[in-house]
């Protein structure tokens, strides 16, 4: 992975990169960043290592962002305990493992998150999930996203049924995604196993659902169907999906806009 | 026309008849646990045993039966694409039934011999293949913890080479998918449903504790059946 490719804009920037010119790894902080979708993403600070003699290495690490809502805000569909463990333990574990890998492997340094995912294939990818579930959620998508869903699936109900079916027929651990396919230029439902992200197939994720057992076992035990239905009816944040759709449309040409004939 | 239909129809007598005159597919039912749900505490909680046995294993069996019926139907009709399409459901649900049936026999309460190290030919074979029982346990725990996602970690024996092996399989794949001559002696379920309620995400703790209720007697029996002389 060359340095020149790292200037490319990222499709979805989930995590915050902080460049710390001098500090050795032990002093590196795991900073908590204030959550907000509207807030601009952190920009990497300048690399001053070349003007400072004493420095031999520059480190960039990923931090764990807070989800954009309080941990008990998703009750009664997802308990506070589930979020505490899923975000606080599992997600944090993925981030720490990721940082450890970055420490070891210099060539990965400086890449955007999407490039990392493509290179490492089965990387941890729960970042997108916490943006999916939002406090004022459920209902239906609106405007452009709804139109595209209706175009590609027939109706929103049909899409919801297909999504739920995909979630229930996924064997083992994995994720179900609503992606915008770059080549086919349409929306599609995709299942991935373990921690694979559709970015590796060059598709753009719009919305996702974690169907690893750890994401619902504490609240629903083995009742996966109830969890998936509750997610689709009450938890999915179409606002966040709409934001991602807008960004995605910058990369995929979905055809001529419909101009009404007079 | 009715006469012609009767003459060309296949005689039912060539197929074994059920009550209604249809060929019946063998259905499976949930095997009983050889101990109480709470008998494996504190290594595995009774709530987990309850859910694992009555919900998860039962679901595999139900879906396996359903898939077998659909398969039988498709085979009778000669519908090749449906037959192939059903293979993944059969592998998953059938594998789940096979694996869990072995799993319940692999565990035993402490007062019934759970956790007692193997003696006899299996004990000797373990020392021969891995150096010591501790080394084997360490190896299996390491592989189990490193497994990404859902799956099983197995201690098996290669029938043809007469060698013990440690293998992992993903999802509900039975050990035989890793080699046709492999026979499972012990299997540990590392799907999250097997430990999450008690151990949360700390799979290594679950792996460390499950050895306290491991039924080595069963493993020895299976091993001796394969290699009666040694």
From TrEMBL, chain A:
Its EC number is 1.15.1.1. Transmembrane segments: none annotated. The keyword Coiled coil does not apply. Its cofactor is Fe cation. Residues 144-242 form the Manganese/iron superoxide dismutase C-terminal domain. InterPro entries: Mn/Fe_SOD, Mn/Fe_SOD_BS, Mn/Fe_SOD_C, Mn/Fe_SOD_N, Mn/Fe_SOD_N_sf, SOD_C_sf. It is found in: Plastid, Chloroplast. One of its GO terms (cellular component) is chloroplast. One of its GO terms (molecular function) is metal ion binding. Residues 62-117 form the Manganese/iron superoxide dismutase N-terminal domain. Belongs to the iron/manganese superoxide dismutase family. This is superoxide dismutase. The lineage of its organism: Eukaryota, Viridiplantae, Streptophyta, Embryophyta, Tracheophyta.
Automatic annotation (TrEMBL), chain B:
Residues 118-221 form the Manganese/iron superoxide dismutase C-terminal domain. InterPro entries: Fe/Mn_Superoxide_Dismutase, Mn/Fe_SOD, Mn/Fe_SOD_BS, Mn/Fe_SOD_C, Mn/Fe_SOD_N, Mn/Fe_SOD_N_sf, SOD_C_sf. PROSITE patterns: SOD_MN. The keyword Metal-binding applies. Pfam families: Sod_Fe_C, Sod_Fe_N. It is found in: Mitochondrion matrix. Keywords: Manganese, Metal-binding, Mitochondrion, Oxidoreductase. Mn(2+) binds at residues 52, 100, 189, 193. It catalyses: 2 superoxide + 2 H(+) = H2O2 + O2. GO terms for molecular function: metal ion binding; superoxide dismutase activity. Its main location: mitochondrion. Residues 27-108 form the Manganese/iron superoxide dismutase N-terminal domain. Its EC number is 1.15.1.1. GO terms for cellular component: mitochondrial matrix. Homotetramer. Belongs to the iron/manganese superoxide dismutase family. This is Superoxide dismutase.
């Amino acid at each position: 992975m060359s340095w020149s490719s790292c200037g490319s804009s990222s499709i979805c920037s989930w995590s915050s990169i902080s460049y710390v010119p001098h500090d050795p790894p032990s002093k590196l902080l795991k900073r908590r960043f204030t959550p907000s979708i509207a807030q601009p993403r952190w920009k990497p600070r300048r690399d001053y290592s070349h003007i400072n003699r004493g420095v031999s290495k520059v480190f960039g690490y990923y931090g764990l962002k807070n989800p954009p809502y309080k941990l008990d805000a998703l009750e009664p569909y997802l308990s506070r305990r589930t979020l505490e463990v899923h975000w606080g333990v599992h997600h944090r574990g993925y981030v720490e493992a990721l940082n450890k890998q970055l420490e070891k492997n210099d060539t990965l340094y400086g890449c955007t998150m999407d490039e990392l995912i493509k290179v490492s294939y089965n990387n941890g990818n729960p970042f997108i999930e916490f943006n999916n579930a939002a406090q004022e959620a459920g209902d239906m998508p609106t405007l452009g996203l709804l139109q595209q869903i209706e175009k590609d699936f027939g109706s929103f109900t049909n899409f919801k049924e297909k999504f739920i079916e995909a979630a229930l027929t996924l064997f083992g651990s994995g994720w179900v995604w609503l992606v915008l396919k770059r080549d086919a230029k349409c929306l599609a439902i995709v299942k991935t196993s373990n921690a694979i992200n559709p970015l590796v197939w060059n598709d753009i994720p719009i919305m996702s659902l974690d169907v690893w057992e750890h994401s619902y076992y504490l609240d629903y035990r083995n009742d996966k169907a109830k969890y998936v239905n509750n997610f689709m009816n009450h938890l999915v944040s179409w606002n966040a999906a709409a934001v991602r759709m807008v960004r995605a449309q910058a990369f995929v040409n979905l055809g001529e806009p419909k101009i009404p004939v007079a | 026309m009715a006469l012609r239909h009767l003459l060309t129809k296949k005689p039912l007598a060539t197929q074994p008849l059920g009550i209604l005159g249809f060929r019946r597919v063998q259905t499976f039912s949930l095997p009983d646990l050889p101990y109480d749900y709470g008998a494996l505490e504190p290594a595995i909680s009774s709530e987990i045993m309850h859910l694992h046995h009555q919900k998860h294993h039962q679901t595999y069996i139900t879906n396996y039966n359903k898939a077998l019926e659909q398969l039988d139907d498709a085979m009778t009709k000669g519908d090749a694409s449906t037959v192939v399409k059903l293979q993944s459901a059969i592998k998953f649900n059938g594998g789940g039934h096979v694996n869990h049936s072995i799993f319940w026999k692999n565990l035993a309460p402490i007062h019934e011999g759970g956790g007692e190290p193997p003696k006899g030919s299996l004990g000797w074979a373990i020392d021969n293949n891995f150096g010591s029982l501790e080394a084997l346990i360490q190896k299996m725990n390491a592989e189990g913890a490193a497994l990404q996602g859902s799956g099983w970690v197995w201690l098996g024996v290669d029938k043809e080479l007469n060698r013990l092996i440690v293998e992992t399989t993903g999802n509900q794949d039975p050990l035989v998918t890793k080699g046709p001559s492999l026979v499972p002696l012990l299997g540990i379920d590392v799907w999250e449903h097997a430990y999450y309620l008690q151990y949360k995400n700390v799979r290594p703790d679950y792996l460390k504790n499950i050895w306290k209720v491991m039924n080595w007697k069963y493993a020895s029996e299976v091993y001796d059946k394969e290699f009666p002389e040694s």
